[in-house]
Design a protein that fits this description.
Distance between the termini of chain A: 34 Å
Oligomer: heterodimer
Largest interface: A-B, 23 and 21 residues
Distance between the termini of chain B: 49 Å
Number of helices of chain B: 10
Strand content of chain B: 15-25%
Radius of gyration of chain A: 60 Å
Shape of chain A: rod-shaped
Helix content of chain B: 40-55%
Order of helices and strands of chain A: HHHHHHHEHEEHEEEHE
Order of helices and strands of chain B: HEEEEHEHEHEEEEHEHEHHEEHH
Shape of chain B: globular
């Protein structure tokens, strides 16, 4: 099996420099952490504003609503006090007692809290006037009682109004606070969502930027160690940091080096085993391969045939047309050998113009067919050894079927048969004497 | 380290602070605001309010009786920590002492058979209490005044006929009207809301105690919220102070 020249391994395509910023992992993750921090701070500040609003509302209740409610309650008590003093005045005729009651009414009506409240000031002024008129009367009549009853009712309604208004004010504050707390719940949910999303994004970034490239690098290095240079090697993902790119470049260079080494190693091996002129195995390598074929044949008991071929009149070519022409002929014959014989056959340039063959698992009859085909192929080459006598290039072949003999012995027998072929007129095949010979090929006309 | 030091200092400071009694000035002869009752107990709106505030401050108090004329001086000099006396927060007083937030608004009352005098009218002899805004007003008008040391002396002066009029705060004036000695005189009353005779009533605090002022303001809010202020009001006055 002749060696085929190995194709140079494809160098990893240098991927285009990414348009992305050449970020280091530290910068990238610092940036991400800063972004997450800013988000968290923003969301918490937003929630803090809600808390502040809530606190303001509670402060408003404590500092404004409660005092206002207490004020309203006091006003209600004073309205009731006026009603009570009015009733006393209706019941009493003594000037002193009436004056005492009137004093209480006057003090209440004169207070800035009443004077400055447009809801109650007019009604109380009217009530005060009614009581002043009453206090001057000697006798209280029913009309006076009805008039006061009407005033008293107005004040009772005012008291109701003040009470319900202060309760309603509380209710509004509570409603306001409830809405703030409600929006606080929404903000809490949203902030949790933002935090979760940030964390998730961070983990994803960690995966995309570090974990995934690391796994990829690990796989590629494993492949490289096994000698497989997959084109999948690079790039290591979409998001690549400066460090990842450095590793990519280093692995690319490593792969190129390893491929170059492989090529050189294959080249050296090929040149060590090959005849430099013809490209066929050299004699040393042929002997190795042939020995193995002999061993296999011994183990399997399959037939094995050995042959030696020699160019006829080759010395005359070299002498008359020069070594360059001789080399050309040798190369052409080698080409015919490669074209004619099977892949399983083992052959080499055995000597100057001599070739040796081993046909594994092949009987002499079968090998003879192949050898004859080769002989014909060489004879029909367009070369002429002597331009003047138009003599074609021919080979003489000696063959032997291996039976109870070693490689050297077989080659020796085949060599003798080849000389027999030369002696018998060249361009023919002769068989070494073993048991029974197939018919020799007819000599060319 | 610094925080723990502060905490320790606070823990040490509070019991010490709590152990100190606050000295509180009250007047003893101004019913219904502060007076000694039949059983000899100091009571009245201001006396009870003083006790309620000390409870709200969570600090023991020592009530000290003063004449009205001495109250501002005692507070200004730090002889007492604060005073529960119905003082109008006038600019002259504010220059000497600190005032809490207003407790209520007050007026003055003119008690006489004669009307409240106009600018250039001749005035009768008017009873006032020394150191009161009414006294200061009479001085500014050049009135003929019987300047008395306590509010209870007004009753005697009115009953004895040594004065023809009295100018008093609306709360103590009310008690004069209720007094039997007043009923036979044929006097009337006039509520006076002139700026010099009316305004915010507040508690006075020693100028060296600004922190106590803050605590007292909180205590006032507390007693107003927890109903203590209103219960005391109901106890001593037939109307709500507001």
């Amino acid at each position: 099996m002749p060696p085929r020249p190995a194709a140079p391994p494809p160098a990893p395509a240098p991927h285009k420099a990414s348009a992305r910023a050449n970020l280091s992992a530290g910068t990238l993750f610092s940036g991400l952490a800063a972004l997450v921090l800013v988000l968290v701070v923003a969301v918490e500040a937003w929630r803090g504003m809600n808390q502040h609003q809530l606190l303001q509302q509670l402060t408003q209740v404590q500092q404004h609503t409660i005092p206002e409610t207490l004020k309203a309650q006091r006003m209600v008590r004073n309205l009731e006090a006026i009603r009570l003093e009015g009733e006393k005045m209706l019941a009493q005729s003594a000037v002193r007692e009436r004056m005492q009651s009137m004093y209480v009414v006057d003090v209440i009506v004169a207070s800035p809290a009443v004077r400055e409240d447009p809801r109650i000031a007019p009604a109380l002024k009217t009530a005060q006037q009614t009581l002043i008129a009453l206090s001057a009367k000697e006798t209280i009549v029913d009309a006076d009682r009805r008039a006061w009853a009407a005033q008293s009712l107005v004040m009772a309604r005012l008291a109701d109004q003040l009470t319900t208004e202060s309760i309603e004010r509380f209710n509004q504050e509570i409603e306001h606070t409830r809405r703030t707390v409600d929006s606080g719940y929404w903000q809490l949910g949203l902030s949790l969502a933002v935090l979760t999303a940030s964390l998730l994004a961070f983990v994803l970034a960690l995966y995309a930027v570090l974990i995934r490239p690391l796994r990829h690098i690990n796989n590629v290095l494993e492949d490289t160690r096994r000698g497989e240079h997959q084109p999948r090697a690079t790039p290591f993902g979409v998001l690549r940091t400066r460090e990842t790119r450095s590793i990519e470049r280093a692995i690319g260079q490593l792969q190129v080096l390893m491929q170059e080494n492989e090529t050189i190693r294959a080249g050296l091996e090929a040149s060590a085993n090959t005849d430099s002129l013809t490209g066929l195995y050299n004699r040393r390598h042929f002997m190795d391969e042939a020995s193995q074929a002999f061993a296999r044949a011994r183990r399997s008991g399959n037939p094995l045939t050995v042959a030696i071929a020699d160019l006829d009149h080759f010395k005359a070519v070299n002498d008359s047309q020069g070594h360059a022409a001789g080399d050309l002929v040798l190369k052409s014959v080698a080409e015919r050998i490669r074209d004619t014989l099977r892949q399983t056959d083992i052959y080499c340039r055995y000597g100057g113009e001599e070739f040796a063959f081993v046909f594994p698992d092949t009987s002499l009859a079968e090998a003879c067919v192949l050898a004859n085909r080769l002989r014909e192929a060489v004879a029909t080459m367009p070369f002429k050894l002597h331009a003047h006598d138009a003599q074609p290039v021919t080979i003489s072949i000696g063959m032997v079927e291996v039976q109870d003999m070693n490689l050297d012995m077989a080659l020796n027998r085949a060599d003798q048969a080849m000389y027999s072929a030369k002696a018998a007129g060249r361009n023919r095949i002769e068989f070494a004497p073993t048991q029974g010979f197939p018919e020799p090929s007819p000599a060319p006309a | 380290m610094r925080l723990s030091f502060t905490l320790c200092a606070m823990l040490l400071a509070f019991p010490a602070l709590a152990a100190d009694s606050l000295r509180v000035a009250v007047v003893g002869n101004a019913p219904p605001m502060s007076f000694v009752d039949a059983s000899g107990r100091l009571t009245g709106f201001n006396a009870e309010l003083a006790r309620a505030l000390c409870e709200a401050l969570d600090q023991p108090c020592e009530l000290k009786l003063h004449e009205l004329q001495d109250v501002v001086g005692a507070v200004a000099s730090g002889q007492v920590d604060f005073a529960v006396v119905s003082l109008l927060a006038t600019p002259e007083r504010r220059a000497r002492i600190l005032f809490t937030k207003p407790l209520y608004r007050s007026l003055s009352v003119w008690l006489s058979a004669r009307p409240f005098p106009g600018a250039s009218e001749p005035t009768p002899r008017v009873a006032v209490v020394r150191g009161s805004v009414q006294h200061a007003y009479g001085n500014s008008k050049g009135w003929n005044m019987a300047v008395l040391d306590t509010h209870t002396e007004v009753y005697g002066a009115v009953g004895a006929g040594t004065v023809q009029a009295a100018l008093l705060p609306m709360t103590t004036g009310m008690n004069v009207i209720r007094d039997p000695r007043f009923s036979g005189l044929g006097w009337n009353y006039t509520l006076v809301s002139e700026a010099a005779l009316s305004g915010d009533v507040a508690l006075s605090v020693s100028p060296s105690q600004p922190k106590l002022l803050e605590r007292l303001n909180e205590a006032i809010d507390k007693v107003k919220r927890n109903g203590r202020f209103d219960r005391i009001n109901t106890e001593f006055l037939p109307f709500r102070l507001q």
